[in-house]
C-alpha cells in the first residue's frame, strides 16, 4: 500500500497532503453514517505521523460538517512529526476546534466522550507498543466509549503473527484505506477490532493490481468469471460422476449432507460409498443419489468410473477405513480429503506424503494442527499450509470465518463470504460435497476450492439476512439459487 501511495502521488500528480485529504474525506463519509448525531462528543487522538495527520484532517472536516463537540488530543510521546501532520495541524489551528497537547498518558484515562477516533499510530507501526503508548491504549480500552480507528487500530500490525498478548487499542470499527490488512482475516484480530470497512481513497488500482502479491481476496466478479453455465444439449454424463466415501453408523448424516450438497451443486451423478446400515436412510432422503455399499472386498476397479472422489465426512477412523483410504490414495487420482480422512492421515505420515498431486484437503484448525503440529497463531498456520501446498502440489482449504485457500503456486485466496450464523455441525460436510461436485464437473482443483468455498459462504450469507442461525441442510438447498444469481448478474 505504501508503494501504491508513492506511485499515485508520482503518476497521478496528486501531492501526499491531498492524498491524506482524500483519505480523511473517505473516512468522514463512513463516519457520518455511523455517528449521525452532530451533538455527539467526539475526541480525536492523533499521533505525530501520517495516521495522526489523517486524524487532524478528519477533525477539520467534521467541524465543516457541523459536528459541534469535536476535541483533538495531540499525542507527543515521540520526537519526530511528519510533514503532512505539520501541515494539517496548521490548517486545524485556524479553526475553533480545541487542541490539547498530551505529554503524559494519564490524561486519556478520564476522557469524557461518546465517540473516540483513534489516529495515533497506523500502518507505520514498526515495533510493539511500549511505555506511554501502551498505557494510552489500556486507558482507551477502559473508557467504554465507542472507538473508531483510522486505517488500523493503534498497536495492531497489518501482517505477521498477532501477538498473543495484544496490548493495542480495541476498536469497535476500523475504517481502513483502499485494501483490508491481511491480519484482519486472522481470528486473533478479534482482540483488536470488531468489524472493519474498507474505503476507496483513490490510490492507483491498476498499479495495486499489477503488484506481485501472493494474497488474493476473492471477489464476486472473479467468481462470476469462473462459474460455467449449464450447456445446451448437455446430459448427466456432461457433469461428471462424483463419489463420496463417507458415513458411519452414528455419523450417517455427514454422508447424506455431503451427498446432498454434491447433488445440488450440479454433479451429473452422485454415489455414496457408505456402510450397509446407511442404505435405507440414503434411499429415503436422497432418491437421486446412488450407493456403493462399503465393505472390505471393494476392488480398486470399483472406483474407476468416478470423475471425482471425496473421502472423510463421518467416515470413522477404524482400521478398515484406514485401509480404504490407503486404497484410494493408491488410485493416484486427486482426492478431496476431509474430517476423518484427515484424522487418519495425521496418524499415517507415510500416506500424507504420498497424496496424489492436486488433492484438496479441507481441514479446520484442529485437523490442520493434528496433521502438521501445533501452531502459535493463524499466520504461522497459513505459512505452513503455503509451504506444504507448494512442496507437495496440494490445495489446502484452511477453514474459518475467512477461509484461506492455499495453492501449489504459493497464492493464498482469502474467502470473504460466510458468517457466524453458519457455525454449526455439518457445515464442513456440505463444503466437501460442493467442492467434489465442482471437481466432477471438470473445474481444476484450485478453481473448485476457490469457487466452492465462495459459494458455500455466499449461500450462508444470503440465508443469514433473514435468519439468526443457518443449518447445513438449508445451505445445501440455497446453493442452486446462489449459483443462478451469480450467473444472472454477469
Ligand atoms: N498509503 C496509504 O494508503 C495512505 C496512508 N495514510 C495514512 O498514513 C498512515 C501511515 O503513516 P506513517 O507511515 O506516517 O505511520 P504512522 O502509523 O502514523 O506511525 C508514525 C510513526 O510512529 C512511529 N512508531 C511506529 N511504531 C511505534 C510504536 N510501537 N511506538 C511508538 N512509535 C511508533 C514510527 O516512527 P519511528 O519511531 O520509527 O521513528 C512511525 O513512523 C496510514 O495508516 C494511514 O492512516 C493516508 O494519510 C494517505 C494514504
Ligand atoms: N463463523 C463462521 N463464519 C463463516 N463460516 C463459518 C463460521 N463457522 C463455521 N463456518 C464454516 O463452516 C464450516 C465448518 O466446517 P467443519 O468445522 O469441518 O464442520 P463440520 O465438521 O461440522 O462439518 C467451514 O466451511 C467454515 O468456513
UniProtKB/TrEMBL annotation:
UniProt keywords (A-Z) are: ATP-binding, Isomerase, Lyase, Metal-binding, Multifunctional enzyme, NAD, NADP, Nucleotide-binding, Potassium
Q: Where are the transmembrane segments?
A: none
What GO biological process term is on the record, naming one? metabolite repair
Cite the YjeF N-terminal domain residue spans from the record: 1-209
Reaction catalyzed = (6S)-NADPHX + ADP = AMP + phosphate + NADPH + H(+); (6R)-NADPHX = (6S)-NADPHX; (6S)-NADHX + ADP = AMP + phosphate + NADH + H(+); (6R)-NADHX = (6S)-NADHX
The record describes how the cofactor is bound as:
Binds 1 potassium ion per subunit.
Family matches, as Pfam families: Carb_kinase, YjeF_N
Enzyme Commission number(s) from the entry: 4.2.1.136, 5.1.99.6
Cofactor(s) the protein requires to work = K(+); Mg(2+)
Binding, (6S)-NADPHX = 50-54, 122-128, 133, 151, 254, 314, 364, 429
YjeF C-terminal domain sequence ranges: 219-486
| Stored Gene3D superfamilies | 3.40.1190.20, YjeF N-terminal domain (3.40.50.10260)
Annotated residues for binding of K(+):
51, 118, 154
Family annotation (PROSITE patterns): YJEF_C_1, YJEF_C_2, YJEF_C_3, YJEF_N
Task: Give the record's family classification.
Answer: Belongs to the NnrE/AIBP family.
Please give the HAMAP family that the UniProt record associates with this protein: NADHX_dehydratase, NADHX_epimerase
- List the NCBIfam families: yjeF_cterm, yjeF_nterm
Q: What does this protein do?
A: Catalyzes the epimerization of the S- and R-forms of NAD(P)HX, a damaged form of NAD(P)H that is a result of enzymatic or heat-dependent hydration. This is a prerequisite for the S-specific NAD(P)H-hydrate dehydratase to allow the repair of both epimers of NAD(P)HX. Catalyzes the dehydration of the S-form of NAD(P)HX at the expense of ADP, which is converted to AMP. Together with NAD(P)HX epimerase, which catalyzes the epimerization of the S- and R-forms, the enzyme allows the repair of both epimers of NAD(P)HX, a damaged form of NAD(P)H that is a result of enzymatic or heat-dependent hydration.
PANTHER family for the chain? ATP-DEPENDENT (S)-NAD(P)H-HYDRATE DEHYDRATASE (PTHR12592:SF0), ATP-DEPENDENT (S)-NAD(P)H-HYDRATE DEHYDRATASE FAMILY MEMBER (PTHR12592)
Quaternary context: Homotetramer.
Q: What is the official name of this protein in its record?
A: Bifunctional NAD(P)H-hydrate repair enzyme
